[in-house]
Amino acid sequence: MPDSRERDVTRRGFLIKAGQGLVVTRALGALAPSASAQPVPDPPGKKAGWAIVGLGSLAINQILPAFAKCEKSRVVALVSGHPEKAKKLAARYGVDPKRIYDYQSYDSIKDNPEVDVIYIVLPNGMHAEYTVRGHQAGKHVLSEKPMANTPADCQAMIEAARKANRKLMVAYRCRYEPFNQEMIRMAREQELGPVKVILADHGFSIGDPTQWRLKKALAGGGSMMDIGIYSLQAARYVTGEEPVEINAMSYTTPGDERFKEVEEATNFQLRFPSGVLANCSSSYGYSGQNRYRVVTTKGWFELEPATGYSGLRMRVRRRGDAIEERTLPVRDHFALEMDHMSECVMDGKDPLTPGEEGLRDMRLIMAVYEAAQSGKTVKV
Amino acid sequence: MPDSRERDVTRRGFLIKAGQGLVVTRALGALAPSASAQPVPDPPGKKAGWAIVGLGSLAINQILPAFAKCEKSRVVALVSGHPEKAKKLAARYGVDPKRIYDYQSYDSIKDNPEVDVIYIVLPNGMHAEYTVRGHQAGKHVLSEKPMANTPADCQAMIEAARKANRKLMVAYRCRYEPFNQEMIRMAREQELGPVKVILADHGFSIGDPTQWRLKKALAGGGSMMDIGIYSLQAARYVTGEEPVEINAMSYTTPGDERFKEVEEATNFQLRFPSGVLANCSSSYGYSGQNRYRVVTTKGWFELEPATGYSGLRMRVRRRGDAIEERTLPVRDHFALEMDHMSECVMDGKDPLTPGEEGLRDMRLIMAVYEAAQSGKTVKV
């Protein structure tokens, strides 16, 4: 699963590259030795062209800056309802101002051959429409998570990709970064024995009550949709299994103006076919939780933070030993994710997290809500 | 809730005591200054006499050594089916060998006026019988947790205490030690705002398949009864509330010879009247888990280990701040617990964790099993 290119960033690989740089420099005889000792990365190959749709906080603070770390992706177009914001960002990131679209002109992106991939960074409730229109424009699409508001919308997106013969990927960022990949490896290879229980908690105290995440039509649901999905994903990708039973409990503080349309908290339990159980929590009402622990027969390993944009930490305990902190390369999650999509597009490969993966989560989220509402174990 | 005597062990209190010692020493003019600077504790007052019933690992390794740390409790009798073991322990702890009983002669303890309190350290399924016989012998009784195998047995124990006009306490050790007491204080005083979610995990990989904990008649149940009860207790004592709804899932590895009679793992969810939700796990199949975290609107605080006999660690995070480790006095949990019971007996006070508290847990454990078995939310 880890990008094999990243695996090469070892000390040995580093020294070999540095050595090659030195040979070239000596032949030229022009640079000072101190400068010549620096490794010089190869120039990038062809990069896929990306259009970013929706210039909110995630696009501004995470996605656009990440292109500087990409090997296979470059931003070539912006789609926004705010022309001034788009112009400023275009200037900062070297996007031709003629390649700025609004939501009316969006479909004309089909005439822009520079755009290979469209990244949908809109509120959840708009993912389906803009993904389908993107596919109809003949482009590949990466949609933010959760994939849409309903399984039916997810299916429409998958169908649009199929008809257009274009890729559809869901932005499950954590599948592309080293810490979560290491957790998956440890679980699957049973480094500390078979997995028994997964304990996952994700949430934060949400602020501004007017934001789209708190509007049912735009968000599809509350904490479960937005942040509980990380706990659900972790349980699924660590085990590599699909849950067969779900219990859940929701809670919303009466009178809290933030939660007029969507739920505050949803806790859920999963049973997997192998017997692994998961206890998961999600909330918009508690102070930041971002962790999961995998408990095995011989120890446990955990990430906390687990799924943030950066600063992830891994702790590992083998029974009887001290707790060990395991360090891994610090990488830009968004760059890894976008480069994976670019690679799929350029090499004709299927994404690790295609539309079908988003649909599976959406069906499970509906089952979680059903369990919470009915007070019964839902079999899926 | 914390013992007020313990609260006095501050630096200021220490210096005052040291100063008083110095005055006395100077008057005597006999000791070297270095020795005179040491604080001399007051001699203990009257101590209640204890009989320990059941000389297994807990009695040998924790309870008997703890008397050396007691201010109000001394061991004066032993009850065991193994006379040689009892003789060796009597010799080590200064118990008159004439005060060794077996399970037949147990009732004659009524004729021993030195014994005020009987501590039942037998397998769960024997708590009821030996508690009732203890009360019938006119003694006060401290029973290990879980209180018994069934709510009916708990009620019989409570009734026996009432009839005999003697105290009955359940050995919820964690209620008497500083770390868990501090967690309770922080929650109740809303140091980091109101509690929203409690996440509690307790369990270990159980060994010897022939041990009593794996026999239904002696243990009453599996991991939930023995170790899940710590998660249940934590959720209850942190909130100070009684749960109103319970979900649960159990799992037992097919063919595992340890789990022929009792369940391996039970995960459960609780809803409290204030809206607090709890996610709890218990297992005899996963590697040691011993922790709970209290998540509030403004941060979180946790113990890990949370309920072990020693070595507890507290971490506190206020939103936006670094994680803080909070240190507290290291105390012997069993000494604190036994001294509480002695104090209740000598001063005619009611224990903090009376039989009724054990009965509440037992009813809730039955509701957890019912929820797991029925696949429905159980309202309690």
Give a nutshell description of this structure.
Two copies of one chain form a homodimer. Chain A is an alpha/beta fold and 380 residues long. Chain A has helices spanning 4-7, 11-28, 33-36, 57-66, 83-93, 124-136, 151-164, 178-188, 216-219, 223-239, 333-347, 355-374, and strands at 48-53, 73-79, 100-101, 117-120, 140-143, 168-170, 195-203, 245-251, 265-271, 277-283, 289-296, 299-303, 314-318, 324-326, 378-379.
Q: What order do the strands of the largest sheet of chain A run in, or round the barrel if closed?
A: 14-13-12-11-7-10-9-8-15
- Morphology of chain A: globular
Of all chain pairs, the largest interface belongs to: A-B, 39 and 39 residues
Give the N-terminus to C-terminus distance of chain A in angstroms: 27 Å
Structural class of chain A: alpha/beta
The major beta sheet of chain A can be summarized as: 9 strands, mixed
**Percent of residues in β-strands of chain A:** 15-25%
Write structural notes for this entry.
Two copies of one chain form a homodimer. The first copy, chain A, is 37% helix and 21% strand. In chain A, the strands form two sheets. A nine-stranded mixed β-sheet of chain A has the order 14-13-12-11-7-10-9-8-15. In chain A, strands 3-2-1-4-5-6 form a six-stranded parallel β-sheet, sandwiched between helices. The N terminus of chain A is likely disordered. With 380 residues, chain A is α/β, with parallel strands linked by helices. In chain A, β9 and β10 form a beta hairpin. Chain A has twelve helices and 15 strands. The interface between A and B is large, with 39 and 39 residues.
